């Protein structure tokens, strides 16, 4: 049985969302309120298990009295606030942010961006063929996972998951500045020369597919990756007594990826190297 | 924390540089040899982790000594401070003044920003670079504004090496010479070496290998402005014998005018002499502050109507009140002296010409807001201001004007200088906190605001240098008399950094309310004026027919422009406008921290579009101007901090007000 922690009861506060009065528990973000009200505000850098970094700025909304737009993912709702999620101003910024990202980063494996680009009528090609791109090559320096920074939107989620928010390994950081900023280990060395413990918790939170299992990367390269043919089975890791939940992604009777449910009270989506990558013996058929 | 340090070891020199800052390592945890005591308990760890804020000074120590930061040096510093190497690498690569790759010990920064470009900096750079090849032992770099606009074009030489003077103690006889003399003599004394005595000659420079030069030569910095190719090269090859920089009063054309309030000591009092400072009215404001008590000091500052002079014009009294009222302790005081807005040099002149005034003003601010520790975050490109402030702080400390029980009033306050390392973004208040704390200088999300959670997560009051210095006349004159200066909503005197196409560039003090025309006439504006840039790269251009704009916060706002930090840069018709706009765009692209998408990619797209239309006009440029407007609007609306929000201002104003591409 899964015990769902109820937490301390929280007072409700009331504010106006797109002209409608809404009530949310104290401490909720504007994004929480939007989701509760069934509004689809796009997000990229927001992660359900991480403190918002509000780096991508695709979730911006208009708040009465604020000079600039406000990131819905991190701004807490306040009583009496007047929030509008779909004004021309907010939609314009979302559109430009999508254009800026799509014109510089490979978003082909980022869920929903194609849909949003259509919805906001973004035209990433308008910056011309000379528009600077990240131009990074995939880094395949170990057998477990691949870092394809051409797909990186610099959302900081992997850094936070590796650092003080979950893993406490601090193997990666943002290095450089501005458009040249990249996620890197010290001296931009291969992962094998870093503090990485291969827990794969960075892959779990990566919103773009820049970090992926080597198995997924190879199958995508071979053109055999097909999520519609995959099943997901949640089970309990057998390696130790902690009882982490694993979700095995299986295609053609082969485990191709392992994740963990983000709402699992044991893991919150995190695993160790054994749970994450130690699955090959399961499919040893000799 | 899974700390993992690679196999690379620091050189003896790198180890010595770090140990000079942090003291010798106490346990094997910190990199010392393992002793019997280490087998019983481990020292370091948590205690060392609390010293994360020494990461930036540590990187400076290595860079000052060796000229670049090697893997071994970074790892040793990380071990000493219990910082993960990946994070330290992220910090080291954030700052323009550091290099994680080998480079020559001497770096010549040639300012190619607005005022210097207008004064021919690009030709200077090309010609210097052609003559200082790789074999010269000098690395030539294009630099953003060095804050020497009144003497454009400017160049700054930084040569790594042993520091002959201990940090915090300027060499005796320090006055106007900018090179740090050797331990036993003034400028020109032979630096300590291996007996060869050739260390400062150019042949030694050319014979030296990469990154090893620091061993033989003392560390030196020298400013060369206005620079010619010849003087720049001479200064770069022998910074310790470079001619003295002109004294600070030369940057103040009004020096000696008895009506000056903020600048009256510059040129009158010796900036290195505390007694002279007191003879010229120093420390009367602090005595009055002690007589009034903290609450009344805040009331005076509030009643004076003093608004922040760093660019945002926030009421200083309100900020102090909000910090003083916070129940959480300790409170911190931070002085933002990371003046990097292109065209701004007021804080430099104040710190070089009247350093004790800042020490006194910070003491007052700390007393009022209940802070016992202050940080002066000083721009890394200001060697003379650094020495002057170090000297002033040491003097004040020696005389009991800093420390416990100041003036026998029982108030304790001390301050520390933290050097920036070449990042415009660190002038943003929360980025500055991150920088001091030893993290990447990226702005934080607000709220929470600094008055609630600032430096080290504690209530912090952060003020600009000029703002703080204004507190002295507020207290000596009284709030009413101070508020009578200027206009109703912009009170007091204001400093203006006038540069570009004027006969007498420099720092001017005028009461708020003077018009742009009056200021420019005072500075000797020339006839062929094409445009005036107000507020720096984040400000806006105005036309020569708009010189009746009153120089107040409300007056410039009403005219659709900004006063910003007080930059007034005049351009004549000899400088092509598109070229200036391109330089502004390059500046923002280089200085964006990269945290948020609108600024990180938007500044790149802005620069690309301005490149495309550099030679186009009218309909040929219309598409790209429309694109610029759309990107600019999103940057202004959706960026995290003021950098991205203002990165399009100057370009927009040039298009709209000056008709730049018509």
What is this structure, in a nutshell?
The complex is a heterodimer of chains A (286) and B (662). Chain A contains 7 helices and 12 strands. With 286 residues, chain A is an alpha+beta fold.
Helix content range of chain A: 10-25%
Main pleated sheet of chain B: 5 strands, mixed
What Rg of chain A do the Cα atoms give? 20 Å
Return the CATH class of the largest domain in chain A.
Mainly Beta
Cα distance spanning the termini of chain B: 59 Å
Major sheet: arrangement of strands of chain A = 2-1-5-3-4
**Structural class by secondary-structure content of chain A:** alpha+beta
Helical segment count of chain A:
7
Helix proportion range of chain B: 25-40%
Kindly report the name of the CATH homologous superfamily of the largest domain in chain A: ADC-like domains
Order of helices and strands of chain A: EEHEEEHHEHEEHEHEEEH
Distance between the termini of chain A: 36 Å
Strands of chain A, count:
12
How large a portion of the residues of chain B is in β-strands, by DSSP E? Answer: 5-15%
Poorly predicted regions of chain B: 166-215
CATH class of the largest domain in chain B: Alpha Beta
Calculate the mean pLDDT score of chain A and round it. 95
Q: Give the largest interface.
A: A-B, 54 and 51 residues
| Large-scale geometry of chain B | globular
Average pLDDT metric of chain B = 91
Give me the CATH architecture of the largest domain in chain B, please.
Answer: 3-Layer(aba) Sandwich
